[in-house]
Amino acid sequence: SKLIVRRLLLLLPLFELFTIMATSASSKLSKAVKQQYMDLPQGDQVQAMYIWIDGTGEGLRCKTRTLDSEPKTIEDLPEWNFDGSSTYQSEGSNSDMYLIPQAMFRDPFRKDPNKLVLCEVLKYNHKPAETNLRQMCKKIMDMVLNQHPWFGMEQEYTLLGTDGHPFGWPSNGFPGPQGPYYCGVGADKAYGRDVVEAHYKACLYAGVKICGTNAEVMPAQWEFQIGPCEGIEMGDHLWIARFLLHRVCEDFGIVASFDPKPIPGNWNGAGCHTNFSTKEMREDGGLKCIEESIERLAKRHQYHIRAYDPKGGLDNARRLTGHHETSNINEFSAGVANRGASIRIPRSVGQEMKGYFEDRRPSANCDPYAVTEALVRTCLLNEEGEEPVKYK
């Protein structure tokens, strides 16, 4: 009996870890029971989940409708509407908002032939809602089609319990200091890999251009990479990848946070490093074009800082301190293989004299439409000054 007691005492810390982790009630519902219904045939009808960005500029909303047949193109999808007064997007007295389908993906939760539909939001007068940044981004991208702008965005995020506490962290304290967690392997180094693997497969099934993933520097923090994507496709694919992450986390009963500095103190923040190139940059001698773009970015630092998080730079001010692999928010810098600079030129690009550069300033909760649009405006349309140019 003494041996049993000793073994129970050894297991007590592990038991406490699992009992204190706050997960949602819905995650505890029987998935086996649910699957009985998910396996039922649905005839020729299709479920189309419409997805849009709400009035915060960060949150995603969704609702589903039935279609009589499988849509093959965007044109096959009807416009829809929703109550904008419940999504921070309109007054209750005039609350109808329009959903305009723009991109379609396979649904990894309901599976084929069901669809996920990314939508733009228009107000009652058919003008873009304030957080609909896609329409202007598309206009800017169309102006530079012949330059074939490619983007790759590295989305960092943090897994949290429903109480806001980082997933896997001790309830009354902190894990060991940063060092062993980046790309780490093992139960004491990688917190929440099940979520990461499920999300990766969901993206592949959906048709999202996910190109990689890894554990990040802070425990419970991860990253996935989207790209290369050309033009407006970058924003579309990143927003759907974020939706899929939220939805996967919902099944596990935990939360994915894109806060740029979820834990204050000596812990890394979360960014969305953005890799950018044009056809000319990718060709022989392209380094000259890269350097010219960096010179333009240096003259427009504050404009980009305002575009790189949804609060005009206030969120990024908590992250861009000059520490923890970041540049100072008030200073512009560039360098080869320098992760403490605003702009990093990969060492291979410096050697091959062509390729791309990485803008390390965008925050994890940035709007990819705003980030990619700002880069094109400054680097390709040669805009100057603190405000974007208004084109007819």
TrEMBL record:
Ranges where the GS catalytic domain occurs: 133-392
Any one GO BP annotation for this protein: glutamine biosynthetic process
Keywords: ATP-binding, Cytoplasm, Ligase, Magnesium, Manganese, Metal-binding, Mitochondrion, Nucleotide-binding, Signal
UniProt entry tagged with the keyword ATP-binding: yes
Gene Ontology molecular function, alphabetical: ATP binding; glutamine synthetase activity; metal ion binding
Keyword Signal listed: yes
Cofactor(s) required, per the database record: Mn(2+); Mg(2+)
Signal peptide bounds: 1-25
Class of enzymatic activity (EC top level): ligase
PROSITE patterns: GLNA_1 (PS00180), GLNA_ATP (PS00181), GS_BETA_GRASP (PS51986), GS_CATALYTIC (PS51987)
Catalytic reaction list: L-glutamate + NH4(+) + ATP = L-glutamine + ADP + phosphate + H(+)
Cell compartment(s), UniProt: Cytoplasm; Mitochondrion
Enzyme Commission number(s) from the entry: 6.3.1.2
Principal localisation: cytoplasm
Residue ranges constituting the GS beta-grasp domain according to the UniProt record: 44-126
GO cellular component labels: mitochondrion
Pfam families, sorted: Gln-synt_C, Gln-synt_N
Family: Belongs to the glutamine synthetase family.
Name of this protein: Glutamine synthetase
Lineage, top ranks: Eukaryota, Metazoa, Chordata, Craniata, Vertebrata
Gene: LOC107757425
